[in-house]
């Protein structure tokens, strides 16, 4: 799937309650795993599909978001939903910090730094003047 977000997507893991109403007016509630999050949206893993364009309410004891399903695909371990937050809802670390949160950019930067250090350590020290 093509990346369409302009801002950083942070990997995370936390359980959230998801509420929505289907086209027939029936209310649904499910538990979802928050897979990643950004300022404008999130990816949820769920046991059931949710139709495209469905408006969801995502609730956690510390915060609540509303969003619209942009995609729902089945992968080996369940359904993955891409959710774009509705106007007026934006995620920040200050308003909600998932239990596990990882910025892949920091991981890559750390890996590059470690690789450079290893290269430096492998090089022979400069010859000493005699």
What does this structure look like?
Helices cover 15% and strands 45% of the residues. The protein is mainly beta and 130 residues long. The model has no long low-confidence stretch (mean pLDDT 84).
Quickly list its features.
130 residues; Thrombin, subunit H; 1 helix
Q: How are the secondary structure elements laid out?
A:
Elements: E1 10-21, E2 27-37, E3 41-46, E4 55-60, E5 63-75, E6 78-85, E7 100-102, H1 104-122
Antiparallel strand pairs: 1-2, 1-4, 1-7, 2-3, 3-6, 4-5, 5-6
Short synopsis of the structure:
15% of the residues lie in helices and 45% in strands. With 130 residues, the protein is mainly beta.
CATH H level: which superfamily? predicted glycosyltransferase like domains
H-E string: EEEEEEEH
CATH fold type: Thrombin, subunit H
Please tally the β strands and state the result: 7
* Poorly predicted ranges: none
What's the tally of helices? 1
Mean residue pLDDT: 84
Decide which structural class fits the backbone.
mainly beta
The percentage helix is 10-25%
CATH second-level architecture? Beta Barrel
Distance between the termini: 62 Å
Q: Mind telling me the CATH class?
A: Mainly Beta
What proportion of the residues form beta strands (DSSP E)?
Answer: over 45%
